[in-house]
UniProtKB/TrEMBL annotation:
CDD domains: M1_APN_like (cd09603). Residues 1-20 form the signal peptide. Its EC number is 3.4.11.2. Gene3D superfamilies: Neutral Protease Domain 2 (1.10.390.10), tricorn interacting facor f3 domain (2.60.40.1730). PANTHER family: AMINOPEPTIDASE N (PTHR11533:SF297), PROTEASE M1 ZINC METALLOPROTEASE (PTHR11533). Its cofactor is Zn(2+). Residues 309-457 form the Peptidase M1 membrane alanine aminopeptidase domain. Keywords: Hydrolase, Metal-binding, Metalloprotease, Protease, Signal, Zinc. This is Aminopeptidase N. Residues 50-221 form the Aminopeptidase N-like N-terminal domain. Belongs to the peptidase M1 family. The lineage of its organism: Bacteria, Bacillati, Actinomycetota, Actinomycetes, Kitasatosporales.
Length: 467
């Protein structure tokens, strides 16, 4: 495959940047990935996107999407060329700074050669006009993401990489950006996305929805649901807008749970600190036959009416995952361990078993119905999944949460509450990795020895000797 060829410029880039000089061609191509340990081609080097302006039109019957993506980015090196990630679709035109640019494609890499070089620190605007029938992607773990067609529209979402099926971009969680999405759909259907609905206008046979996500968002948290939905708008505490879009067949079962979003957020703010975004809600879509929920920013997606535990999990991700995002896909436990621990805390705070009791049940093998399920928790260390296919497996969720319970036991409740809130505050709207986490915890609890916790619970193979 061309993959090794494309990696060469990325590896040479720092060297060439040092030796190249002014005048004529001084830039080098940006990398075709950001060296994610699990998804090496995800994201691109050489620039940082601050804003996506997406103008889309979808025709569900013809299964045809037409789009113009306008990215505002800052060069982090002198650039003669740079890559975007886009999987499938046909590219019709690319401009940089208003001028037509050359481009070519290989797999998910769209390489753009601007008319002139871009200087380091320059802010530039790139537009990509594209169209086609967006693809559905099968993840390394077998789940489906990307552009999932439904009986009346689509559910677009993707962790870790499905977003590259419906818009070109820097599809890696390390590059977060604001979004403005304008999408037109046949009259009668609705289009629901992240952030806040700014306008909705119907002209002739189509309705156009404008959504804005002002706070930085990783592209894997972007979503677009098109179809027939029951819409509800209300306000949570402090006037926070709540927008829910529910598959009509799931409406009755969803209502009593989704009505509790304000209550869950009130509880979560007490535990995790201020809610990091300017709106909330949910999307429930059974038609996509998804099989999992996803913490899409502001507005998590559920494959059917959620239960309280799942609602708590996805809302907790808004702090842990969406606001504090992983630096790479290796850091997935920082998302899932925290969201799972939030479930335990919710139970503890609502008259159920304590997090320590949940931990003990997991350790003794009494938590799951089968022995195999119980054993799966010890398959690998949460901070080091063995492959891309396994970043959403039980050790990342349950053993990740067990790490947090170990921290709580080591520092005591008061300090632990400070750490939960402090972690969300310290990396709010940013990115963090496991080393940032261990350093943060150590800093917050001077004198406590975490050596064994990190070694046995976070990085150790197999089941730790002692609970
Ligand atoms: N992050 C989602 C959650 O725990 C699950 C995503 C599953 N995706 C996957 N590719 N396995 O809420
Ligand atoms: Zn999760």
């Amino acid at each position: 495959m061309a993959r090794s060829v494309r990696l060469v410029p990325a590896l040479l880039a720092p060297v060439l940047t040092l030796t190249a000089c002014g005048g004529g061609v001084h830039g080098t191509p940006g990398g075709s990935g950001v060296r994610d340990p699990y998804f090496p081609k995800a994201g691109n080097g050489g620039y940082d996107v601050s804003h996506y302006g997406l103008r889309l039109a979808y025709d569900p019957d013809a299964h045809r999407l037409t789009g113009t993506a306008t990215l505002t980015a800052r060069a982090t090196q002198d650039l003669s060329a740079f890559n975007l990630d886009l999987l499938g679709m046909e590219v019709e035109k690319v401009t940089v700074g208003g001028e037509t640019a050359r481009w070519n494609r290989a797999g998910q890499e769209l390489t753009v050669r601007p008319h002139g070089d871009i200087d380091r620190d320059d802010t530039f605007r790139v537009t990509v006009r594209y169209s086609g029938a967006p693809e559905t992607v099968t993840d390394p773990d077998g789940s489906r993401e990307g552009w999932l067609r439904t009986s009346d529209g689509v559910l677009a979402l993707g962790e870790p990489t499905g977003s590259m099926t419906w818009f070109p971009g820097n599809h890696h969680p390390s590059d977060k950006a604001a979004y403005d999405l304008t999408v037109s759909v046949p009259r009668g259907l609705r289009a629901v996305s992240n952030g806040e609905l700014r306008s909705e206008t119907t002209a002739r046979s189509r309705t156009t929805f404008v959504w804005r996500t002002g706070e930085p968002m990783a592209s894997y948290l972007a979503t677009l649901a098109i179809g027939r939905f029951d819409i509800s708008r209300s306000r949570a505490g402090g006037g926070l807008p709540v927008y829910t879009a529910v598959d009509p067949v799931e409406a009755a079962a969803s209502r009593p749970v989704l009505e509790r979003i304000p209550e869950v957020l009130r509880w979560a703010e007490r535990r995790f600190g201020p809610y990091p975004f300017s709106s909330t809600g949910a999307i429930v879509d059974r038609a996509a036959d998804l099989g999992y929920a996803l913490e899409t920013q502001n507005r998590p997606v559920f494959p059917g009416a959620p239960g309280m535990t799942l609602l708590v999990h996805e809302l907790a991700h808004q702090w842990y995952g969406d606001s504090v995002s992983p630096k790479s896909w290796r850091d997935m436990w920082l998302n899932e361990g925290f969201a799972t621990y939030a479930e335990w805390l919710w139970e503890e705070d609502h008259g159920g078993r304590s997090a320590r009791e949940t931990f003990d049940a997991l350790y003794s093998g009494d938590y799951f119905a089968t022995e195999e399920a119980g054993e799966a928790v010890w398959a690998f260390p949460p901070a080091e999944p063995p492959s891309a296919a396994r970043i959403s497996e039980p050790p990342v969720y349950w053993r990740g949460a067990m790490v947090l319970e170990k921290v709580r036991q080591a520092v005591g409740d008061e300090a632990f509450w400070r750490i939960l809130k402090g972690w969300a505050a310290e990396y709010r709207h940013g990115n963090a990795d496991t080393a940032d986490f261990t350093a943060y915890v150590e800093e917050q609890a001077p004198g406590v020895d975490f050596e064994a916790v990190w070694e046995d619970w976070l990085y150790g193979e197999g089941k730790p000797e002692r609970a």
